[in-house]
Specification:
This protein is mainly α. The protein folds into 3 domains: 55 residues, Multidrug-efflux Transporter Regulator, Chain: A, Domain 2; 49 residues, no CATH class; 77 residues. The chain has a two-stranded antiparallel ribbon. A hairpin with a 6-residue loop joins strand 1 and strand 2. Helix 7 runs antiparallel to helix 8. The longest helix is centred in the last third of the chain and has 37 residues. 11% of the residues are buried.
Amino acid sequence: MKINQVEELVGITKKNIRFYEEQGLISPERNRDNGYREYSLKDVELLNKIKLLRRLDVPLDEIRRLEIEEIQMAECLDRHISHFTHRQKELDIMKEMCKEMIDAGEEFSTLKADSYLEDMLKQEKGGVRFMDVKKTDIKRTKRAPIIAATVTILFFICMIAFMCWSELNDPETPIGLAAFMVVIFLAVIVGVLLALKQRLKEIEEGEINEASKY
């Protein structure tokens, strides 16, 4: 079946389906005649599993480990329950801080934030987190394109250095060809940087958060 049909059956967007493919969570077959993706009922079933676990806020890495049977479902969910319990304690602490600010009659214009920030710092030293836990997924997803781009750029920098070295040490090397190759390598580096910038922008603007809803 086509991706539009899968979108209707599973109830998630094509963008999210593509995202899960990029993450290696789903691998639909390709039509040999036209190269288009052909989704099966097995793919639909797998996407429903991913949708369920993501709605329970199970991280993508853990879903991947479940797929390859590196961890068992009970192990994953038990750890997740512990996470929810710990997170609930953190939420209770934040609720109490909010109540404390209300009881103190705090107003934005006169709010003395220092004392509350100091209290937060003490709580954080004790293991409490006041930040959004979903940022973990974003950081992990950013890491892969950054590493790939860095390796690619370093490779082409080495090629440029090699071309310059060859030109200096081998007078028979055509200077026009060397200059042309250097320009090509520089163009590739610029292209990689632009692609990386776009990819990080997509991640930052909510690709992960969008996918985490399903």
